[in-house]
Structure formats: structure tokens, C-alpha cells
Design brief:
alpha+beta; Alpha-Beta Plaits; four-stranded antiparallel beta sheet; two-stranded antiparallel ribbon; 6 helices; 6 strands; binds iron/sulfur cluster; 4Fe4S_Fe_S_CS
Length: 139
């Protein structure tokens, strides 16, 4: 069965996404994400392989051990306020950025903005550049 290290888990759901037997379940509300690991007897090892934090291990099945569950508070997007990621996930991404980018405040800022807002900001920027170019070449 699967053993989770709560000190390492990021709440990223990679394990849940690859589990072929739906043994790892997401319970999500507006501001909290809970990951629930059922007691698995399959031992296919996919979740262990795909965990980016090495938080999972295969251990011998034990009837007495309860199922595992970890809850994470979701971090709010700095633009729209919607809650979109766990703090450990964001900290992991920030820690993996190249040193130059970490010194760049705007580079770090992107990580604290949800993907929808990032797309909107990029689209707005691109549209602004197109308009500027049209003005430049218009007679
Ligand atoms: S070992 Fe395989 S079946 Fe069991 S929880 Fe992990 S991915 Fe799912
Ligand atoms: S893949 Fe690893 S870090 Fe991500 S939720 Fe599963 S156990 Fe946690």
C-alpha cells in the first residue's frame, strides 16, 4: 500500500492524475484542497514514480493503518483573488527558478497569479502591441 510523507507532499495531484484505479481522491472547496489516499492493494507504483516531491513510498499492506488525508489551504491569485494553488506547490516552483529570475520581482510575481489572469494579461499585452504596430505603419 501507499505511505504518504505529509512533510513532503505538495498537494499537486500528480499522483491522483496517474492512478489508474482512482485510489487517490481530490476533495476541493473554494479555499481548501484535500487529497485522500485510499488503502491501495494494487501496488502498480505509478503514483510513487510520478510524485515530484518523493513523498510516496510503497509499504507492506497493513489492515490496521488508517487511510491518509492531507488538507491544504489554497493561495489566492494576486489579480482576481481566486484560489488556485497550494502554498507548497508555489514555494517549490519559486525555489526551482534560476537565480537571476528569483531576483526579478516581476518574475516571482507571475507565480502568484493564476493561469487565467496570466493568459488575460498576455492577451492584453499582445493586443496592445498589435495596435501600436498598426498605428506605426498606417499612413
Ligand atoms: S500504487 Fe498504483 S493503483 Fe495504487 S494508489 Fe498508486 S497509482 Fe494508484
Ligand atoms: S504527487 Fe506527491 S506531492 Fe503531489 S499530491 Fe501526490 S503525494 Fe503529494
Amino acid at each position: 500500500m501507499i505511505k504518504v510523507d505529509p512533510g513532503k507532499c505538495l498537494g499537486c495531484l500528480s499522483c491522483s492524475n496517474v492512478c489508474p484505479n482512482q485510489n487517490i481522491v481530490l476533495l476541493q472547496s473554494a479555499d481548501t484542497r484535500t487529497v485522500h489516499w485510499k488503502k491501495c492493494k494494487e501496488e502498480c507504483d505509478l503514483c510513487v514514480e510520478f510524485c515530484p516531491a518523493k513523498a510516496l513510498a510503497l509499504v507492506a499492506y497493513d489492515e490496521l493503518v488508517p487511510e491518509s488525508e492531507i488538507s491544504f489551504e489554497l493561495v489566492a491569485c494576486r489579480v482576481c483573488g481566486s484560489r488556485y494553488a497550494t502554498l507548497p506547490m508555489l514555494m517549490k516552483v519559486e525555489a526551482s527558478l534560476p537565480a537571476g529570475m528569483q531576483e526579478d520581482a516581476s518574475g516571482l510575481e507571475w507565480i502568484r497569479i493564476c493561469s487565467q489572469c496570466r493568459r488575460d494579461i498576455e492577451a492584453e499585452k499582445a493586443a496592445g502591441q498589435v495596435m501600436k504596430e498598426r498605428k506605426r505603419i498606417s499612413p
